[in-house]
Amino acid sequence: MASPDTTTALESAAEMVSVRYPWRIRVRRWLRSPRPYRAALGIGVFFLAWYLLIDAFKVWRFGELPGLVNSTQEWLSADPIFGVSLFTAEYYRHIWTSFARVFAAFFAAITLGVPIGILMGWRRIFFGLTFPILEILRPIPILAWIPLAILLLPGREIPIIGLTFLAAFFVTILNTLLGVRSIDQVYFRAAQSLGFSQSHILWHVIIPGALPYIFVGFQIGMGACWFSLVAAEILSGSAGLGYKVWETYYYVQFPTMVITMATLGLCGYLSSGLVRIVGNRLMRWRAKLLAGV
Amino acid sequence: MATQGALAIRHAGKIYDPEGVHVVALDDVSVDIGAGEFCVIVGPSGCGKTTLLNAVAGFDQLTDGEIVMDEQLLASPGRKLLPGPDRMVVFQHGALFPWKTVLWNVACGPIAQNRMTPTEANEKARELLGRVGLAGAEKQYSGELSGGQKRRVEIVRALMNDPKILLLDEPFRALDALTKSVVQEYLLELYDYSRKTVFFITHDLEEAIFLADNVVVMTTRPGRVKKIVRVDMPRPRTHEVTTTDRFLQLKSELGAAIHEEALRAFEAGERELA
Q1: A273 touches chain B (CB under 8 A)
Q2: pLDDT, tens digit, for every residue of A63-113?
Q3: Which helix (H) or strand (E) holds A42?
Q4: Which residues of B touch A205 (CB under 8 A)?
């Protein structure tokens, strides 16, 4: 999990440099750089492989899977065979349900996780009390929490959100803690010299100083949310993209299954992108710093 | 002339890890700095200069002796640490908050201490920034500035708090020679303007003589006072004084003492490696 996110962080750092320019210039620059063409090539190779393995030659067990042409037709059809396409309300109902769950869980996770992480990084006693138990609970896979969530939380919706929450919660705490720890001691000394109160230190040293790490945590946390959402929906849902993936498998509606999977990917990508944009807005000082190097 | 900011360091001692490795960083260091005096401490790396500065600043406690400023006890073994805006520190690697603008960095102290309203503080900050040639930089983030600009901003930030004493820990170490001479002159200009007591650490002898009223040479581990030399060159000074006979005379007088210590430090380092 660590390495792809490192690349994302580096990429977003590079993108942040251009934050100041109007979007028109940015788009033109982007089109002149090799990046969009490399991305297009990578995606193209993937679809070509799909087409060749399944549609064209039915290589080995790939023959059993839904082809590229079939799936695309189904997705774009006004009257889809299995009832789900870009033009059906059901498609958007599933997307909406999953998005709502992810965002509810994500916001709960960051509202609780950031203060806890800050306290852990800032106050040694609190760290001593909470870190060991956190380190024991954190490695428990989300799938292992599912029975407990069902036993503990009422209804159908709350266990799903609870499980989704849990994944982002631990990541947010840990990254916030690391962020606070990463702040150079010299800034705390400077703040003491300048006569800062504790709340001044919190708002003007700790929070902005830890923000880069906190936002890396948000990005990883957002990914973790989608991951555990699908697991939770598969087991106890009645709607949502994760549920739909499993249901279509069950009813042998393979093109729809693939459509839903692709939609999950796009939703995850979009929501991580959203987090990144917000982060860049909040950390312009860093963009300029990186631009200056 | 300043009437505040007289600093007395009496028999200061500092032992790191007394039960274990037992490193004597400072041993019976006594220095008297008069109100408004510019005192420069020179010595090789590891002579306890920064330890002494941290004790004055209130970041670290002494294990022996005491530090008194204007009859007020600042540090003695077992006392609570007392950092505060009466002793502003300019740090070796700089400590401007990179996530804040230059103006915010400079104005934040008096606002945090409730001594000025934000409007007053911003106005004063702009005035001081103008004085060091940084009037146009106020809206920039401090990370965007060059090394020399950062140093100037940091000194201005310190002065904004109207401290009794300014503590500078090798502030120009990382600057190239040209920038260094420019920033040194700005510092002297600000010193002549504010007449704060200055406690300045360096291992650059020419810098020490150029800036100081008194140069204190320290010995290497354990840190002791080896020699105190009065620099009797008139102020205001510009870089032209570095070519005068008096400057060269002081340089050779101090140079011998420092070279001896540097050699000892070097040999000690060799021993540690062997």
Answers
A1: no
A2: 777 878 788 887 777 777 777 777 788 888 888 988 999 999 999 999 999
A3: helix A35-50
A4: 97
Q: B72-75 and B214-218: which strand pairing?
A: unpaired
Query: Is A168 in CB contact (< 8 Å) with chain B?
Result: no
Contacts by residues A197-202 (CB-CB < 8 Å, ≥ 24 positions apart): A197/B112, A200/B112, A202/A118, A202/A122
**Closest residue by Cα to residue B56 from B36, B42, B70:** B70
Q: Nearest 5 degrees, angle CA A78-CA A81-CA A87?
A: 25
A243 contact partners, CB below 8 Å, separation of at least 6: A94, A233, A234, A237
The pLDDT > 90 percentage for chain A reads 30
Please compute the mean of the pLDDT values over residues A188-206 and round it to a whole number: 92
Residue of B209, B213, B218 whose CA lies nearest to B196: B213
- What value does the mean pLDDT of chain A take? 83
What ipTM, to 2 d.p.? Answer: 0.85
Portion 12-71 of A in contact with B at CB < 8 A? none
Structure tokens at B88: 């502003």
Of A10 and A44, the one with more pLDDT: A44
pTM of the model: 0.80
Residue A293 is predicted with a pLDDT of: 39
Is the pLDDT at A18 greater than 60, yes or no? no
Residues 6+ apart with CB under 8 A from A42: none
The reply to whether A208 touches chain B by the CB within 8 Å rule is: yes
CA A290 to chain centre: 24
pLDDT higher than 80, residue A210: yes
Identify the segments of chain B with pLDDT beneath 50. 1
CA A117 remoteness from chain centre: 19
Average pLDDT over residues A8-36: 67
Residue A107 contacts B where some CB pair is shorter than 8 Å: no
Phi, psi at B30, each rounded to 5°: -125, 120
SS3 labels along chain B: CCCCCCEEEEEEEEEECCCCCCEEEEEEEEEEECCCCEEEEECCCCCCHHHHHHHHHCCCCCCEEEEEECCEEEECCCCCCCCCCCEEEECCCCCCCCCCEHHHHHHHHHHHCCCCCHHHHHHHHHHHHHHCCCHHHCCCEHHHCCHHHHHHHHHHHHHHCCCCEEEEECCCCCCCHHHHHHHHHHHHHHHHHHCCEEEEEECCHHHHHHHCCEEEEECCCCECEEEEEECCCCCCCCHHHHHCHHHHHHHHHHHHHHHHHHHHHHHHHHHHHC
The domain made up of A83-292 has a fold known as: MetI-like fold (1.10.3720)
Segment A251-273 mean pLDDT: 88
Question: Domain ranges in chain A?
Answer: 83-292
Backbone φ, ψ for residue B64 (5° rounding): -160, 150
To the nearest whole Å, the CA of B55 is away from the closest chain A CA by 13
